[in-house]
Design goal:
With 274 residues, this protein is of the alpha/beta class. It contains six helices and 16 strands. The protein folds into two domains: 98 residues, Translation factors (Elongation Factor Tu (Ef-tu), domain 3), CATH 2.40.30; 159 residues, Nucleotide-binding domain of ferredoxin-NADP reductase (FNR) module (Rossmann fold), CATH 3.40.50. It is globular and about 55 Å long.
Length: 274
């Protein structure tokens, strides 16, 4: 589908964790066409002095209902302003979205077993991929990491998805920095164990996708390479135009400088120059 500029309506916008918010938008055209891993470029209403749009990954979509869900973190002026936007507020119907934008996740056509690794809010851009794989009958395992239990905001949805799939484990493996849920520490040790367990069982992974802080993606990509597992990463970059013209979101790759907005955000991890 070609890019569309769609006026969206806020249906809900509420806190779901520490500085974490979930916004549901009515955007039928984009909801019907967006693929796992693609994103939207949002013009935030009430911020006329800030002309640049903001990129947001899509957590979930309902094509029939025409809705999108965006999980975002309040970290600065713009995102703090977003937390104040409500369905019954003056700007509810004034959100503008350009989308679907970017390269989607592209697991191999013959994938049999997949490992998805999400760090922090990076768990959100992987959820639609998890749904797609599970619905295709692919055995899908999930590793999630966050600072605290409260920050594991995507965990329950992943649990429900995996529990309903006979071929999948009934819960993601989790780690928290403070040990409040799952293993204490970074989730990389869980990834290492998952790769080793799958190989020992004679059912190795043939696809790995990771999204989260860049150090996490770099480490997991290296683990995948050592294990011989094809790996994709979703690279976050600041961007202005979102259509590949301004070159503000460049990612260094073995194929040269690539644009996160149109050549990505999903890249073959083997080609990223970390």
């Amino acid at each position: 589908m070609a890019l569309v500029n769609e006026r969206a309506r806020i249906l809900s916008n509420a806190g779901v964790g520490p500085s974490l918010y979930l916004m549901t938008l009515e955007a039928p055209q984009i909801a019907a066409a967006i693929e796992p891993g693609q994103f939207v470029h949002m013009k935030v209403p009430g911020m006329e002095a800030h002309i640049l749009r903001r990129p947001f990954s899509v957590y979930a979509r309902d094509g029939e209902a025409g809705t999108l869900e965006i999980l975002y973190q309040a970290v600065g002026f713009g995102s703090a302003h977003m937390t104040e936007l409500q369905a019954d507020g003056p700007f509810a119907g004034d959100v503008e979205l350009v989308g679907p934008v970017g390269r989607a996740w592209q697991p191999p056509a013959d994938v049999r077993r997949a490992l998805l690794v999400g760090g922090g809010v990076g768990a959100a851009p992987l959820f639609m991929l998890a749904e797609s794989l599970v619905n295709a009958g692919v055995r899908t395992d999930v590793v999630l990491g966050a600072q605290t239990q409260a920050a594991l905001t995507c965990r329950e949805r992943y649990e429900a998805l995996l529990a309903a799939a006979p071929a999948c484990d009934d819960a993601p493996r989790c780690a928290t920095d403070d040990g409040s849920f799952g293993r204490e520490g970074f989730c990389t040790s869980l990834v290492e164990e998952a790769l080793a367990d799958a190989k020992a069982a004679g059912e190795p992974y043939d696809y790995l996708a990771v999204c989260g802080p860049e150090p996490l993606m770099r480490i997991v990509a290296a683990m995948a390479a050592e294990a011989g597992v094809p790996c994709e990463v979703s690279m976050e970059r600041r961007m202005a135009c979102g259509i590949g013209a301004c070159l503000s979101c460049v990612v260094d790759t073995t194929d040269g400088k690539q644009r996160a907005c149109v050549d990505g955000p999903v890249f073959d991890a083997r080609k990223v120059v970390w």
